[in-house]
Amino acid sequence: MNTLNSSNISKLYKKYEVPANIIAHMKKVSEFAAILCDKFTKKGYKIDKESVVKAALVHDLLRVCDFKEISPTSPVLWAELKKKYGKLGHEKATQKILNKMGHKEIGNLVLKHDFFKIKELRTWEEKILYYADKRVDHDKVVSLKVRFREGRKRNFSDTDDLAKITATEKMIVSLEKQIRKTIK
């Protein structure tokens, strides 16, 4: 799979048995990211929209690695992926797969969508993918407030560092302001 096109992306979804709800999320993130890319382009910024959209379409490819539990009725592959990549996290695991396929640029974009990597975002492409992901809850574009509330329920526990989570959420709000100011 040299070219990362819609057909090959669909094959990746099948190969890794990506759940339908995660595919729907990735597709909505890609739609929202494409809209943002277009707004940046209209303001005169040179944005690699194709890479952003492709990265959005695969950014949660191995999300199953981060599932808290894999039930006995889940595909056997999910348990294997969790065992192999669970300590890396889905972002790094997906990056590794994309790099192996020869898609290092897209893999690097995927790596940067990790919730806590906001301080590492350098390019508009990284910021657009990161922000688009943070605005899409399941398959709906929602406010950051809604997304943070839902994300805390799904992704964090009482043992997680609440101060770090809150600080990151504040940085995401600042990123939103930066994006809005840039594209208005």
Structure class: mainly alpha
Q: Classify the fold: give the CATH topology.
A: Hypothetical protein af1432
SSE order? HHHHHHHEEHH
Q: Report the helical percentage.
A: 55-70%
Q: Tally of extended strands?
A: 2
- Largest β sheet strand count, sense and barrel closure: 2 strands, antiparallel
> Number of DSSP helices?
9
Q: How far is the N terminus from the C terminus?
A: 39 Å
Number of individual domains? 1
Mean pLDDT: 94
The best one-word shape is globular
Characteristic terms for this protein:
Hypothetical protein af1432; 2 strands; two-stranded antiparallel ribbon; globular; mainly alpha
Structural summary, described in words:
It contains nine helices and two strands; from the N terminus they run αααααααββαα. It is an all-alpha fold and about 180 residues long. The chain has a two-stranded antiparallel ribbon. The model has no long low-confidence stretch (mean pLDDT about 95).
Could you write a compact summary of the structure shown?
This protein has 184 residues and is mostly helical.
Task: Please specify the SSE layout and strand pairing.
Blueprint: H1 6-15, H2 20-42, H3 49-58, H4 76-85, H5 90-100, H6 104-111, H7 124-135, E1 136-137, E2 140-141, H8 144-155, H9 162-183
